[in-house]
UniProtKB/TrEMBL annotation:
Organism the protein comes from: Amaricoccus solimangrovi
Entry's transmembrane regions: 71-91, 111-131, 151-175, 181-201
Start and end residues of each DUF5671 domain: 66-199
Protein name per UniProt: DUF5671 domain-containing protein
Alphabetized Pfam families for the sequence: DUF5671
UniProt xrefs under InterPro entries: DUF5671
UniProt keyword list: Membrane, Transmembrane, Transmembrane helix
Domain of life of the native organism: Bacteria
Length: 208
């Protein structure tokens, strides 16, 4: 939980005047602030003998950061969607459905491949660029936009996995678990699971 700027400023002023953290916490609690807000405000400052309270690093927002991360995650979405479409088209070609002959269409393959040809280099280049910047300056990892978009990608991946699981259970209950259906469900699960695992691990490392 992030404390408000006014609360953080008060915590800094109280610490600078020699107030103890327990006394400050009691005063803030009596004023109606929650325990989480109080802890966040006090943890924003470090006590150093002979010096005013030292601020901890905070998340920053910049237009450049928003552009680069936005482009990377947009390319990631294109990559995931077109990879799904490509595998689905291949499955329809290998296991054609006589009741739906239009599914095994070469146009779907062409569009999916075209999307991958564009999306993958953009995602790879932006990801590598952001990783190199983070290695040179670890403070880059505190970008607020990158954090929000990463959690957004994790949310979409998690909801996709949940929806995919619901579809599999519904297919099982309806007796529609054909090989084509199972292969497509597995494709969705693998792609969404890979995104969740990759960005989830990166998010844990950044938080640490």
């Amino acid at each position: 939980m992030r404390a408000s700027d006014a609360l953080t400023a008060y915590a800094r002023e109280a610490l600078a005047r020699g107030g103890t953290r327990p006394a400050i916490a009691r005063a803030l609690a009596e004023a109606g602030w929650s325990a989480g807000e109080i802890e966040a405000a006090l943890s924003a400052w470090i006590d150093v003998p002979g010096l005013p309270p030292v601020p901890r690093p905070r998340a920053v927002v910049s237009a450049r950061d928003a552009f680069r991360h936005g482009l990377m995650f947009f390319a990631l979405g294109m990559l995931a969607v077109n990879l799904n479409l490509l595998v689905f088209a291949l499955i329809d070609t290998w296991l054609p459905d006589p009741l739906e002959p239009g599914l095994a269409d070469g146009a779907a393959l062409r569009w999916a491949i075209a999307g991958l040809v564009i999306a993958y280099p953009v995602w790879a280049l932006t990801s590598l660029g952001l990783a190199r910047d983070a290695e040179r300056d670890p403070g880059q990892r505190r970008g607020a936009v990158g954090r929000w978009l990463t959690w957004g990608a994790l949310f979409l991946a998690a909801t996709t996995l949940l929806g995919n699981g619901v579809a599999v259970i519904a297919g099982f209950l309806g007796g529609d678990l054909t090989p084509r259906f199972l292969l497509k469900a597995a494709t969705v699960a693998v792609i969404a699971g890979a995104i969740f695992a990759y960005y989830g691990a990166g998010r844990r490392e950044d938080e640490e």
